[in-house]
Amino acid sequence: MENRIGTIHRKTKETDILLTINLDGSGKNQIDTGIPFFDHMLNGFAKHGLFDLEISVKGDLEVDCHHTVEDTGIVLGQVISDALGDKAGIKRYGSFLLPMDEVLALCAIDLSGRPYLNYQAEFTSEKIGGLDTEMIREFFYAISYSAAMNLHLKVLDGMNNHHMAEALFKAFGKALDAATMEEPRMKEVWSTKGSL
Fold this sequence. Notes:
By secondary structure, the protein is an alpha+beta fold.
């Protein structure tokens, strides 16, 4: 497989985002969204998925974090889709069960071309750092729809809000890495329909 890299610059009245991903990277990243805890989560996603990730976001944080987080999810989903191309020769499915101290999180992905999010995580804090916890769902919803992936994320056990969020982002990285891996026995798109 050739290097699978996607880059998008998206500018609206609310956000200005430049994002590049290399699906065949080593986890190197440079991330600045203006929300340090969100940067920390995206760093975990990149490191554990072995994706090279560059993100620069200028958002209307004087309003709140909503547009910055949601739009970052939209653009990240788009660059993942762009980097995958026609998806020929990839495993398509990926899942990971990730323990982090008292937390157990599950992520399962199908790069099916059909968007769907099944998300189950109950946070007891409204914020972690400068990130509204309700925006974690919105971030993954945006990715699932803009990348057209079936995405299941669940916190199966846990109490600490920081650990819960971090486990979800890391599990997502691990599952996406598995789903985007090359399957040497498959040269075409892995679907009975012949396309994804």
